[in-house]
Design brief:
The protein is α/β, with parallel strands linked by helices and 557 residues long. The protein has 19 helices and 23 strands. The strands form 6 sheets. Strands 1-2-3-5-6-10 form a 6-stranded mixed beta sheet. Helix 4 crosses helix 6. It is globular.
Length: 557
C-alpha cells in the first residue's frame, strides 16, 4: 500500500460521510492553473478542502502534505509550500494553505497553518542570519512526541494541531480549518512573502540549467517529448555532477525508472557545456552499445582478428570511441560479464596505461597501448611512432546503465570494477508522484482503472525485492486504453477464470501478464507470494485473478 493510503482513505471517508466537507486530491499544476501562474511541482499530494456549513460563508483550505516515518526520519523539507508562497506573490494565502505532516508508521499527523509556520520563520530571519544550505531552503523537523515543528524557529503545540488519523472526525477537521483561516487572515502576508523570497534567493540550486528551477525535472521517455518521466532535481544534479567530475559513470536502478532516457538527457545537456566543448569545438554524438553475455574483452576494447588471412588488431567499442573522440555509452551494461571483460583494464580505468595487443602478427608489429591524455582524445599512429597509442582525453567519458533487479540474465559488478565507476542510484518514483504522472498520461482511462494501476504500483514499491519503475506501469495504461477502445474483450466471451469479475479487472490482469509477467516469473517464490498478498490487500486482483496470472506466467519462466 502507498505510504499515505491511510491519510487518503480517511479524508475520502470524511468527505463521503459529512455533507459539509468536500475533499479533492489535487496537484500544484491544478493550483497554478487556478491562479494563472507557474508553480513548482510538489512530489507529495495536495488536498483541496471546501467547508460549507449552513448559515455560514463557505471557505477553502489547501493542504500541502509531507509523508514520512517519524521513527527513523525526523527531518524533511517544506520546499514546495515555500516556493508556492513566493511564486504566487502571496496569493496562495487566499486559499488558507496549511502543512499536513503525516507519520504513516503510527498514522498520526501534525497540522500547522502556512502563515504560522512561515510567519515564525520570517520573524526568525529578521532576528538573525540563517545560514544558506546547498540542498534545501526550508528544512524542518517535526516532533510528534513534543508536538512541535521546527523550521529555524519552533512552532509549539499551542500553534499547531496534532492528532491520530483514525480518530479524526468532521467536526474536528472543520474546527481546525477555521483556526487555519483565522491565523491566515491575521498574518502579515507581505512580511512572509518577502522573507521567503529572500531565503530562496540566498539558497539557489546549483546552476545546471533551467531544469533545476523546479523540484521535479521532466525528461522525455525514449526520446518522445509526448511521453515523459520525472525525477527529483537533486537526483538530476547528482547525474550531471557525476558525469562532469568522473570518467566512468553508471546509473543504477530497477527496470522502468528511465535510466537510459535520463542518460540521454544528461548527454544532450552537457553537449553545450564549455567543460566538454571548447569555444569553436564540436561535441560528437556518443557511441551507444548494448552488451550481452557473449561479449569478451575483444568486443569491448579490441583484439586479434583474421583479415585477409592475417592476424590483425581490430578496435573494439572503447578504442573506436576514443579514436573518434566520442563518448561511449554501455546500456544495460550488466548483461555482459564486465568483471571478466575488464580484467586487465582496471589499471587503465584508474588512470594508467595498459597494453591491449599488437598491431598484427608480423615482425615489425607495434604494441597497441591504451592510456589517457589531457585535453581531447588522440591516436598516435604515425610511421615515426614506435607504439600505436590510443589516449582517452581528460573529458572523455564511459557511461552506462545497470539494472540491478533484472531477473532474466545479469552479471554483477565486483568490488574492484565497481570502485572504478561512479554509481548514481535511480530510484522509482514515489507512489504519490506516480499517481500524478499517471493521471496526466492516462486522462481518458476510467478512474477505477487508473486507481487500480496506482495501487498495483504501490504494492510493488513497498518492497525492495519487487520495486519497479513507472514506465512499466504506464505501459499497462496504454494496453488498457487500447483494449477498451478496440473492444477486444467482451464480457459474454469471458472464460471461467474471469467470469463474474468486472471487465476492467480482467483486462488489467492481462496487461499485467503482458508487460510485467516475464519479470514476475523470475521472481523468487517467497517474494512473489508476499507481492500477491500486498496486491490482494490493495484490492487490485482477486484470488481467481492471481491464480490465472500464475498459470499464464509459467510459459514465461
Amino acid at each position: 500500500m502507498a505510504n499515505d493510503s491511510v491519510l487518503r482513505e480517511r479524508l475520502a471517508e470524511l468527505a463521503a460521510n459529512d455533507p459539509r466537507l468536500t475533499i479533492d486530491k489535487t496537484t500544484t499544476r491544478n493550483l497554478a492553473d487556478d491562479f494563472g501562474i507557474e508553480l513548482s511541482r510538489s512530489p507529495n499530494a495536495l488536498y483541496r478542502i471546501r467547508v460549507s456549513e449552513p448559515g455560514e460563508a463557505p471557505f477553502e483550505a489547501v493542504a500541502f502534505t509531507l509523508i514520512l516515518n517519524a521513527s527513523n526520519r525526523p527531518a524533511t523539507r517544506a520546499e514546495a509550500l515555500g516556493q508556492a508562497i513566493a511564486q504566487s506573490d502571496g496569493r496562495l494565502f487566499e486559499r488558507n494553505p496549511l502543512l499536513l505532516v503525516f507519520d504513516y508508521h503510527q498514522n498520526r499527523f501534525l497540522i500547522v497553518a502556512a502563515s504560522t509556520l512561515f510567519g515564525a520563520f520570517a520573524k526568525e530571519a529578521a532576528r538573525r542570519d540563517i545560514p544558506a544550505s546547498g540542498t534545501s531552503s526550508f528544512s524542518l523537523t517535526p516532533n510528534f512526541e513534543h508536538r512541535t515543528i521546527t523550521m529555524y524557529a519552533t512552532v509549539s503545540s499551542g500553534q499547531l494541531w496534532a492528532g491520530d488519523m483514525a480518530t479524526l472526525n468532521g467536526d474536528a477537521l472543520i474546527e481546525g480549518l477555521k483556526r487555519v483561516r483565522s491565523e491566515t487572515q491575521s498574518a502579515d502576508a507581505d512580511e512572509i512573502v518577502a522573507a521567503v523570497k529572500n531565503r530562496l534567493a540566498a539558497t539557489p540550486a546549483v546552476d545546471l540549467g533551467s531544469d533545476l528551477g523546479s523540484a521535479v525535472v521532466t525528461v522525455p521517455l525514449d526520446g518522445d517529448d509526448d511521453d515523459e518521466i520525472r525525477v527529483d532535481s537533486r537526483l538530476w544534479r547528482m547525474i550531471i555532477t557525476a558525469i562532469r567530475s568522473s570518467p566512468a559513470v553508471i546509473l543504477v536502478g530497477p527496470p522502468g525508472t528511465g535510466k537510459t532516457a535520463l542518460l540521454g538527457k544528461a548527454i544532450r545537456a552537457l553537449a553545450e557545456d564549455p567543460q566538454f566543448v571548447p569555444e569553436g569545438g564540436v561535441f560528437h554524438d556518443p557511441l551507444w552499445a548494448t552488451p550481452d553475455e557473449s561479449w569478451t574483452a575483444r568486443d569491448l576494447v579490441g583484439g586479434d582478428t583474421i583479415v585477409d588471412g592475417q592476424i590483425r588488431f581490430r578496435a573494439g567499442w572503447v578504442v573506436r570511441a576514443i579514436a573518434d573522440d566520442r563518448w561511449l555509452v554501455l546500456d544495460e551494461a550488466n548483461r555482459a560479464d564486465m568483471d571478466r571483460i575488464f580484467g586487465g583494464l582496471l589499471t587503465w580505468l584508474s588512470g594508467g596505461t595498459v597494453s591491449i595487443g599488437t598491431e598484427h602478427s608480423g615482425s615489425d608489429a607495434r604494441e597497441v597501448l591504451l592510456g589517457w591524455s589531457p585535453g581531447a582524445s588522440s591516436v598516435s599512429d604515425g610511421p615515426e611512432d614506435a607504439q600505436l597509442r590510443y589516449r582517452a582525453g581528460s573529458n572523455w567519458r564511459m557511461l552506462g546503465t545497470y539494472n540491478a533487479l533484472d531477473a532474466q540474465r545479469v552479471f554483477r559488478f565486483g568490488q574492484a570494477l565497481g570502485r572504478r565507476f561512479v554509481r548514481v542510484p535511480i530510484p522509482a518514483l514515489s507512489p504519490d508522484l506516480f499517481d500524478e504522472v499517471l493521471s496526466e498520461r492516462a486522462r481518458l482511462l476510467p478512474a477505477d482503472l487508473r486507481h487500480a494501476i496506482t495501487r498495483l504500483y504501490a504494492a510493488h514499491f513497498a518492497s525492495s525485492a519487487t520495486i519497479l519503475g513507472p514506465a512499466l506501469f504506464i505501459a499497462l495504461a496504454g494496453y488498457l486504453g487500447s483494449a477498451l477502445a478496440g473492444n477486444t474483450v467482451a464480457s459474454s466471451e469471458a472464460s471461467d477464470a474471469t467470469a463474474g469479475a468486472p471487465l476492467s479487472d480482467g483486462i488489467l490482469a492481462e496487461a499485467y501478464v503482458v508487460h510485467i509477467g516475464t519479470w514476475l516469473a523470475q521472481l523468487e517464490p517467497q517474494d512473489r507470494e508476499a507481492l500477491r498478498d500486498r496486491v490482494q490487500q490493495a484490492g487490485v486482483f482477486s484470488d481467481v485473478d492471481w491464480g490465472w496470472i500464475e498459470a499464464m506466467i509459467v510459459s514465461l519462466a
